[in-house]
Amino acid sequence: MVSVFVRRWNVWTAACVLHLLLILPATPPPAWASGQPAESPTAVVRATLTEVFRILDDPKLKEPDKLMPRRRLLEQVIGERFDYAEMSKRALAANWTPLTNDQRAEFVELFKAFLSDRYAGKIEGYAGERTEYLSERLEGPYAEVRTRLISAKTEIPMDYRMINKAGRWYAYDIIADGVSLVKNYRSQFDKIIRSDSYDELVTRLRNRTVAEDKKDAR
Question: Model pTM?
């Protein structure tokens, strides 16, 4: 088995990954549909935070029996705002090309479920982190929004990489403290495929055994 995140990431940083998955950019309607200029990627990130924080801070959703309903709400937010297909394609890189459409669809769903199950519990400890917006860079259909996530104990640079499809912004990667989530998974997945097979990777994702839990729990 292989570790999902590099060793220098501490537990708080790992928890931030799910936090970022939940505050990824919303997908605003195309400019032509509303007659208004499209929002900037930064403005979309900022607006989405309000929705996510509302879920996390809702007293009614903090009761023990509301854990799963709250998690489902958060997962819904994730699904609407993160381009898992683009992320999967980039994580598999050259290994994506030979897959059939059915295999690609299966992988996207498994990867999405893996991320949710692997890190969902970590965000439950959210308590007062805030985000500073540093800069925005646009290059054709791509954008990068640089931010800093701040807690009482530490500050971590968090950058969002986004792609514009049909006038809508979608996030496909997170750079946490200089480490790309997609590139890290790409390395992990490629090792499994090279040493075993693509089918083995699918099996590990299905069984949630890609990560080495004991290391990540430290």
Answer: 0.75
